[in-house]
Task: structure prediction
Amino acid sequence: MNEIQQFLTGRMWLREHIPFSREDIDNEITQGNLTPYPGIQSSVKTLFTFTYQTNSCRRCGNHQLTAFNCAKCEGPCLYCRNCIRMGRISRCTELITWSGPSLEINQKVIFAWNGTLTLHQQRASDELMRSVKSNESHLIHAVCGAGKTELLFPVIAELLKDGKRVCVATPRTDVVLELAPRFQKVFPNTVIHALYGGAPDLKGFAQLIIATTHQLYRFEDAFDVIFVDEADAFPYSIDKSLQFAVNKAKKLETVVHYITATPSKELLRDVKNKSVISTRFHGHPLPVPRFDSLWNYSKQIKKGKLPRKLKSWTDERMNNNEPFLIFFPTIDLMIQASILFEKIPSVHAEDPQRKDKVLMLRNKQMPGLLTTTILERGITIENLQVAVVGADESIFSSSALIQICGRVGRSSEFPTGDIVFFHQGISNDMDEAKYLIEEHNRVKK
Ligand SMILES: [Zn+2]
Ligand SMILES: [Zn+2]
Result:
């Protein structure tokens, strides 16, 4: 099979970054198998009697382009800052995509999953399958620990067997890292690419892609079915260009399906087909947070003193050999606290060792971790105990708090655990999080 076809089917790549020789690329363009598009597209619009030109980045849809003096085209040019980490798109660059005959997908699919779904998972999985088949958008609203990934398995197995190309997209790199090995185990024969910022470049064609929503900038008209996991998570929830990326990556006539424990009001309103799962896969109730005041914690930490309650909470975890996470509202405060805790490392979004630290916590090579909201989702660690410092700070929205609570009691061997919100006054979001968790425990459907 043609390697260029495999690489570029459904993808759009900067011409100068394509890992094939210039001659080969030119050759395919002459034959009409590859089509180059200008990186910045212009269109003329009319408003009343005015006509004006708008420019946008073809890869990420961004309209706010930056003017600069370009050495390449020797004059004034425009470039896109929004997606610059994937190589600069300017007016004089070209994006290339496969436009030749479509790729025949005939990989043999082995579905190597021998788990069973709970009744709730099975119902949601069947409902999702029906929506996928009738091409109607579907929302799976499943509490943290309901086993939402497992319920995708039978649906994705059928799609892969039908020769469809499938994407599971999520705003969070940590979620990609957690999902990709699980999918690979279940579909051992399927080529699966895990794509996230800093991931190794992968050649060839993958029928199943697990990617951050950012990585979908590089796809166009590629997927028969897209599932967006954790659709309410930052930055997808507020970044229009990521929503543009998901829409561009799917085939024109298809819809997007969503999976989350904390759907936004917009998702609940816009997606008609829904499945709700209020029970965890192991049948135990969701851990309900307890509130505990922690006055002047910020001042104390800045003065080099750990608040007494926080210290005794942590000591108790260490004495019991229970792994723990402590969430902080800001990186600064977390780093100052980390110095005081001595043997407890911290992680945040830009931390290059984040992946390794989470792995070490999972392997019991460290007692606990201090973190920002970056670890609110996608993390499963057995017997985990959780504290939130400054739970009343605005960064801790009710959905962030629900997700954080969802880290506790996930395994059937350890279905409970402590989740404490340390605060300086109970916020509405704290109340709402607790209320919604108790509601699920009450409904249990
Ligand atoms: Zn762009
Ligand atoms: Zn230029």
Observations:
- The first helix runs from residue 3 to 8.
- Residues 3-98 form one domain.
